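Our collaborator T.R. sent over the components below with a one-line note: 'Predict the complex.' Nothing else. No constraints on interfaces, no templates requested, no preferences about which chain binds where. So this is a plain run: every listed entity goes in together, and whatever single assembly comes back becomes the starting point for the next discussion.
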Amino acid sequence: MSQIVWPSSFGTCLTSLHKCSGIILKKCKVMDSKQAPLWIEFQNIDPNGANIKVMFKVGDDLRQDQMTLQFLDIIDRKSLESQSAMDVCFRPYRCAGTGHEVGMVEMVPSSDTIARMQWAGGGPYDKKPLFDFILANAKLKTTAVLDALRVFSRSCGGYVVATYVMGIGDRHPSNIMMQEDGHLFHIDFGHFLGNFKQKKIAGIKIDRERSPLVFTPQMLHVLNPTGDKLVGKEVDDFLEVCYATYSLLRERASEFITLFTLMVTAGLPELKVRCGGCVCIIRNISCLTSFLLVSCFVFFFDCRTYRM
Amino acid sequence: MYMQNQLKLRTPIDKKNKVERLITSAESNKILKKELQNALKTTSKQLDDWMHMQKHKEDAQDGNSALFEFYQEMKRVKKTAPLYWYKKKK
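Returned assembly:
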């Protein structure tokens, strides 16, 4: 790769806004994940701009991620247009499938996974890491902490409802991230519409997700650091965002469902029309019968026309 | 179908009267709040997270560096981070 002569200016397939001038080989690495994706850092053409970080992935159908991210983008825009005008602070990252199970994903700057925060703290049973992450990055300044808490309650509320409605699965702490300004977001949408991952324990298959929505005691601790219940000012703000987002999705249910239905023909593995065995066969038979009847009718009519 | 179900648009069909009715926003909000409370009670999620942590521990290094340094600093000044900030805020 070091022998490649890069053009003086080139872009990525994610957005035309990316203007790169080269690749920083030292910072490129293979990431710790099942598909072993590549972390690639491009030199920004603007000397004052940050490096452009992307992930190159082979082995996953990124169309599903792309679709989910577009859905999140629509929710974000519609939430601002709605009467309640509740900004859910979504910042969907860019993702593009470039071929069969090949694609690129934009890396969100100044962010880290919840798992890495838990590793620095006391693990999944410790409630504090998320709140501590906000405090650490706000340098314990009250205004900065309050701003971060506002962004957190909005983004967390929006994502809780969006992932609940779309049935996003595989929500382990490495798939949930947070930016330094308190913006919480989800990544890797390989499982949706309730197609949850299953674990085999003693030969029995058990759904990995035991709850349809992702709201952990660690998230509650950020909103209410002194208690374990859904009470307090920040919690009320969070609930308000949840209710507003849920109402928005319910009001525009037909629009959103139509968007998903339009993608059925794309052949995404988890987006197929499910029908109960026999009913499906009967439907197929009735479709075939009507097709044959119509064909016979057309054929007969054509013959008559020909004779005439 | 899954999305329709999650959006709680209609009640299930009543077997006696064979009717279904629309669910109001207030009712759906109540259902959502109950789901949130149920999610907080789910202990298997934490167990699953713990198993995930054990699986990837070798590649984890020390976790988030800013947070790690912050904890070191808090240890040095003998303070507990969240309560320290909360008391300062009050």
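Summary for T.R.: The two ends of chain B are 48 Å apart (CA to CA).
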